[in-house]
User: Fold this.
Amino acid sequence: MAGIADSAEWDALSAHYESIAETDLRDLFAADPDRGSTFVAEAGDLYLDYSKHRLNRDTITLLAAVARRAGVESLRDAMFEGERINVTEDRSVLHVALRAPRGTELIVDGVDVVAEVHEVLDRMAAFANRVRHGEWTGHTGRTIEAIVNIGIGGSDLGPRMATTALAAFADRSMTYRFVSNVDGSDFLEATRDLDPATTLFIVASKTFTTLETMTNAHSARAWSLAGLGDESAVAKHFVAVSTNAEAVAAFGIDPANMFGFWDWVGGRYSFDSAIGLSLMLAIGPDHFDDMLAGFHLMDEHFRTAPVESNLPMLMGLIGVWYGNCFGAETLAVLPYSQYLAHLPAYLQQLDMESNGKSVTREGAPVGMSTGPIVWGQAGTNGQHAYYQLIHQGTKLIPTDFIGVARAAEPIGDHQDLLVANLLAQPEALAFGKTAAEVAAEGIAPEQAPHRVFAGNHPSSTILMPELTPSTLGQLIALYEHKVFTQGAIWNINSFDQWGVELGKQLAQRIVPELESAADPAHDSSTNALIRRYRELRAR
Ligand code: G6Q
Assistant:
């Protein structure tokens, strides 16, 4: 299949780029005073302002033509119908089925996957309610006070991000911890102040073979048994989330306490499956349902809205515009909500693991720049650190600002101050400060070049009324489908992760070499590092 770059639609976009590339955001706003209220789109509770981008109506029309030519809509429909669009693993991609309403139907290989999803959700809800209501007790009969999720990557980042995001909805009488790193200090610090008699571990691993997770799970079991002294305690203090029932049973977890999911759920698309059990324990089944409804709302928007008003498609296309026409390399995601502190790390995996690919679905070189480097942290902290580079550096950094209108628990004027910063930054980035404006402030001429802000730095602003389970679901689905849109345009498989698999194998090869005294068998650098490590460890 010819790549999108070989199409007439791409040629038209490229020609248009040449004509608009030098146009400044100041010019665009001067030419169209209504721009701020017309270059906007809404879906559910999310309002997207994309007026501060270096584009006009023609750009959107041409980008939409590119999307149609690339077959974004047909690939989307294929995903929703359960086709095996994850071609390298020969799997369906059905995270949208995880939030399909009860009673709807999606038959894949003769099985109604929606019914299966709700069966697991019901089991999760029954379990979560027992723990939350104190009916599920530990080995000594005490109620559970701490939940520790052990998982990594897709089995960690989602529940970790969402448990922080929805802390205002959580049962505050329990403690929630997340252990992911194989560095023993992660486990030690997470459990240091916990009591084995009141701690429940969730071992979350799709494969139940991942080195980090299994190492932490075994340490957790040893920690529990050291405190409780009896193998039978495992059944009361460990549950599993996995697709590998055999390995779960071999670990000693009662299969009745295993919550399953399916090979058509990718790790980074899984926190609304059983992988979100820790989140459900925190916020309760009803709030979890509200979150799924939020996801579904955005799924339906993505499935039905025309490209030009489809939020995920617009965001995906704007990313393609900067990445492939302007040559931007990164995307900053800056949520102005402390509850969303883990969102950038979550989106890093979602985007970079999905679209960090260099060959097409057919295996040919992709021939164009693909997924961006995603980075950021919660505002306003970054303003006192790296925003300098966005404002006055030499790089083009498109930015997503994310804001929440109402605070979960308002105190004083914090929220207005937070939102004032959220609004001020995109404005300053877009419009900068000219030499004339600097001079008018009475700045000495030799200082002026340092005080000028070139402006013309593009950004989107996403606003939501409040951060709730539903709006979080909408936001995450928005980014999932944005990533999908871009992958479809580049014709890459956004649903495999062979680079991650490689990492899983490489370390396994070195482990025995660290233990042995034999000559290591790598390149000279790795060999020298292995020898140095052996030496340092022995000192
Ligand atoms: C996600 C990736 C990866 C995966 C982890 C954990 O899409 O595949 O981040 O989630 O490697 O894998 P397990 O759940 O199998 O332990």
In short: The pocket of glucose-6-phosphate is lined by residues 152-155, 205-207, 210, 213, 266-268, 353, 497, 500 (CB under 6 Å). DSSP finds 22 helices and 13 strands in the chain. The mean pLDDT is 96. The first helix runs from residue 8 to 20.
